[in-house]
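Note to self: keep these together.
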Amino acid sequence: MIHHLSEKIGALLVAYGLPKENKEIYTYGAECFINLFICDFILLLWSIYFDCVWEMIIWIVTYTLLRNHLGGYHTQKNWQCMIASILLGILSLSTRTFWLAHPITVIITFILLMFCIITVTKIAPVLHPNHPLSAKRQKTERIRSIVIITVEVLAAAAVFFFDVSYCGAMISGIIMATFFAVVGHLKNFEKTDAM
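Structure:
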């Protein structure tokens, strides 16, 4: 259903004068937008019920901003992506207090965040077959990913002194985006290794 609607949006954009050779890109973009909208709406409803709306908004912004430039693993079906995204958001918000609950977990979290920065520096961007990038664009996305994760980690460190729950939401977003980038990178490596 979502793919069908996305195809109609792609056709409509072409009918209104956008280049026909980019119809697949428009369809893919519409599909991503619809998936994102549905997932974020469900996550916001969940966060209203559990009284953590601001934490969810902070997580969505932190995760999505890094993920959009870093790239990462994608499921093969829309419904798998939506379920995984919703579960990821719920899991991330459920673990937000873990990262800073005890002095030991603060140290572990600091080490994890440093690992995330190093990992992003090494693997960014993680490409997807439906979203090829020129060499110039890859370089740009790499720089953006490194800047974004660095700014997000520094912002999380600053927020730590004001609200631990908000800081935990940011940390969960950073760690989850990096985790899915690593999974996507390993999947891409498997595909090229198999060829």
